[in-house]
Amino acid sequence: MTANKYTLTYFESPGRAETIRLALSAVGADFKDVRVKPEEWPKMKESTPQGHLPTLDVEYPNGKKKTFHQSNALYRFVAREHGLYGDDNIDMTMVDVVMGTVDDIFSEIIKWFLEQDETKKAEIKAELGKTVIPKFVKYFADIKGDKEWMVGSKLTIADIATFNLFDQLPVTFGDEIIESYRNNESLQAHAKAVLKNKGIQKWLEDHPKPKKSGKRMAATKYTITYFDSPGRAETTRLALSAAGVEFNDVRVTPEEWQKMKQDMPQGQLPIMEVEFAGGRKTTFCQSGAMYRFVGREHGLYGDTNEDMTMVDVVMGTLEDIFYELIKVFMEKDETKKAEIKAELGKTVIPKFVKYLANIKSDKEWMVGSKLTIADIAVFSLFDQLPVMFGEEIIEAYRNNESLQAHAKTVLTNKGIRKWIDTRPKPKKPE
Fold first, then answer.
1. What is the DSSP letter of 229?
2. Of residues 360, 359, 400, 367, the one with CA closest to residue 382
3. How many CB atoms lie under 10 A from the CB of residue 373?
4. What is the pLDDT of residues 321-377, one digit of tens each?
5. Does a structural domain hold residue 158?
6. How far is Cα 396 from Cα 380, in angstroms, rounded to an integer?
7. How confident is the model at residue 210, as a pLDDT?
8. How far apart are CA 90 and CA 106, in angstroms?
9. How far apart are CA 428 and CA 420, in angstroms?
């Protein structure tokens, strides 16, 4: 008999689709694994059942087609279709007990995602590792007992869901969150038994576990609000452009600003409004927080903790330059202002050019082996300085071959090139 054809559609993450992917892999079912990018989701959300993913398109051997949604329904469908739901009503009910227990854990975890206060968020995470996860580890171990499998005498969707839960948790929360699971001999033996399935083993080998990110739902819509200038918003604008992400670029006039200032977080611009794939919205202020969010969200923050720290070193160096620049704008005496500006070009900027060149060294990029927000921010700074202070201010930068080569490399990014070619032309401050 010809097998069903499957198309599973979800975001570029394990999430609520991974148990289904693993189940299909476990039975050797051939399926299309469609990954939806954040920028694609808003266009298709309206036509998706209940406006949610995942969905599972099934084409039966007789040509009939059906689309299912709701992740719990999807993995139960696959389990029933392919013998992963137990052999009798007792087994099936015990499978449902395990799946309900997995859902209870997600109900606890969701509290962390929904909490906005960082202090409370840290408390929730600590409680998860200290009492919540250990409690559920005991529940699972009690259900499994001294058997090889969670239910019955063969692999079921309950085994796959349990394995997947503890495989995913460290990605978001770190390895310490599952210490009690790692220390439970029975559940460790269970994980090894699940991994003996060749289909599951191959899926995991072909689809490496994502690095820890702490991400919430993928961001899909951005609105950046700032004045009609590059300023402290430009690194974020360039980063989004580099990642190929469309955004609303709202430019506020001085007259508009006076009316809206009291309603702004911390009474400042820029701000960045983000709408996530699930419909949740949040607003960020603080330019450094904004470009770091974009960097993490779109792979522009380095691949390792060392890389991320070096990105922060570069960003901190640029902040030091801004502190020097701000002295010009704060000084009211025109003679002293001219002296500060002269000193910038003569000693301050050359000093920082040397610092940045030393960090870059003989590499192509400032950090690691690919574009990061560090590269974008360095480029943006020296792109803006002549607008504010004239070309002479960046003479040391123009004469540094390494940093000139770096600028040309940054400009090879098509998104950055397009933004620079089409953005409003910055005006020199009066």
1. S
2. 400
3. 28
4. 888 888 888 888 899 989 998 999 999 999 999 999 999 999 999 999 999 999 999
5. yes
6. 16
7. 58
8. 25
9. 16
